[in-house]
Automatic annotation (TrEMBL):
It comes from the Bacteria. Residues 10-475 form the Aldehyde dehydrogenase domain. GO terms for biological process: glycine betaine biosynthetic process from choline. Pathway: Amine and polyamine biosynthesis; betaine biosynthesis via choline pathway; betaine from betaine aldehyde: step 1/1. The lineage of its organism: Bacteria, Bacillati, Bacillota, Bacilli, Bacillales. This is Betaine-aldehyde dehydrogenase. The active site is at E248. Coiled coil: none annotated. It comes from Lentibacillus halodurans. Keywords: NAD, Oxidoreductase. Its EC number is 1.2.1.8. PROSITE patterns: ALDEHYDE_DEHYDR_CYS (PS00070), ALDEHYDE_DEHYDR_GLU (PS00687).
Amino acid sequence: MKKMFINGEWVEACSGETREILNPYNQEVIATAAEGNEKDAKFAIAAARKAFDHDEWSHWPAHERGKKVHDIAILIERDREELAELESLDTGKTVEESRGDMDDIAGVFRYFAEMADKDGGEIIESPIPNSTSKVVHEPVGVCGQITPWNYPLLQASWKLAPALAAGNTLVMKPSEITPLTSIKVFELMEEAGVPAGVVNLVLGPGDSVGAELSTNDDVDLISFTGGIETGKKIMQAASSNVKNLALELGGKNPNIVFADAEFETAVDQAMNAVFFHAGQICSAGARLIVEESIHDDFVIALVDRVKNIELGSGFDESTQMGPLISKEHLNKVVNYVENGKQEGATVAVGGEKPGNPELQNGFFYLPTVLTDCTTDMNVVQEEGFGPVITVEKFSTEEEAVRLANDSIYGLSGGVFTNDIAKAERCVAKMRMGTVWINDVNLYFPQAPWGGYKQSGIGRELGKTGLEEYQETKHVYRNLKPIPIHWF
Ligand SMILES: NC(=O)c1ccc[n+]([C@@H]2O[C@H](COP(=O)([O-])OP(=O)(O)OC[C@H]3O[C@@H](n4cnc5c(N)ncnc54)[C@H](O)[C@@H]3O)[C@@H](O)[C@H]2O)c1
Ligand SMILES: C[N+](C)(C)CC=O
């Protein structure tokens, strides 16, 4: 049985409850995990509070903390294959994709390990005679970290590595349906010698464990990655003690293709934008916005390639796309497409579950292209989080940007054109945290990640990813203290 990690010990849930973890490819039980609740979360928060207040980790020399974070990266690299296979078992994504995730994850730990001792504070030129003024950064304290099921360990690494490098203690709650790689990384952090109480893992549902992390007054910061409705609840709950708040929420990401774009690349990337991990990516380019003059040819070329996408087990080398995560999520995608059809969208390819008998035990949905879409449709506005792309038309640059911005979300977007001045003009007007020119879905540790509008608050990765886990303190010193006799 997979246990939780609290105060340096592997423990079962107080209630003794467990949960079966399913392989979405065939619904086989791949593990049984402890199912914690508020009580377990309270124990973990108390352990993290004690570890922080007793100054151990937060007062280690920063380069020593950096070295520990670096050691974790090395252990992740050592166990890359085991971690990649676990991630694929748990999520259904191809092992090749999971291997790429593990390399990214090790890179994130290395990046924040390097950053740990690079901040020497800042001397401010004080306007007051006989004084000094400086700014220093300190850890925020106890961090609650809540992660989703689609990129379980990748999203965890974006929170764990900077929180540790900055000297915080933490309690993580992974998605209850995909906890396996997070559990493994806590084993690696224990092996690396992270002190007891500094990192704590509580498994279990959002409405108990997650809600406790969001409301508990001993938690100083809550960092959440997940859906917009959960994000709103957490924002409200976090107000109880005015926690620092970081929200990485959903997206409905436009991908604009101009007629002068390199045609074959744009078609290829339109597919990469939305069919990796069966479209279960926050930054999936699920809204294709194509210039009218090439629209019909583009759709023909796209459909021609989409119908050949190989579905199957993530462990089969010929598989290009795995299943969706769960029965509930599959039903959501089915309804999303059905509603789109009722709104007037045309299914150019896909639009149903596959008939292939070998796939009937998994949560599969065919890669789908919906045409005749307009911005006012729900299918264009809602985050579908499945292998579904909607296609809209535009005829001017202004219209393309207006359509792209017509969304409550602002996570990411793409522009495909050979006219770089046009691309830069569009980018300057696109209200999104990341915009790719002639590319899609790229992210790396050095660049910040996060959303405009309802896609979130704050930024992970990059310099800002560390700053999210730091408080800023101004230290003023009077060099000649004398009474001022005001009173
Ligand atoms: N912006 C990003 O970087 C990013 C990255 C990955 C995923 N996402 C988003 O995540 C969503 C998919 O993930 P999901 O379905 O796991 O999201 P979700 O919101 O259902 O769950 C995310 C996490 O929140 C927990 N949770 C649920 N209710 C809670 C509550 N009341 N209080 C506290 N925690 C609670 C869940 O148990 C889970 O661990 C999509 O919307 C996707 O766009 C965003
Ligand atoms: C942030 N990213 C793109 C790695 C995963 C989003 O779901």
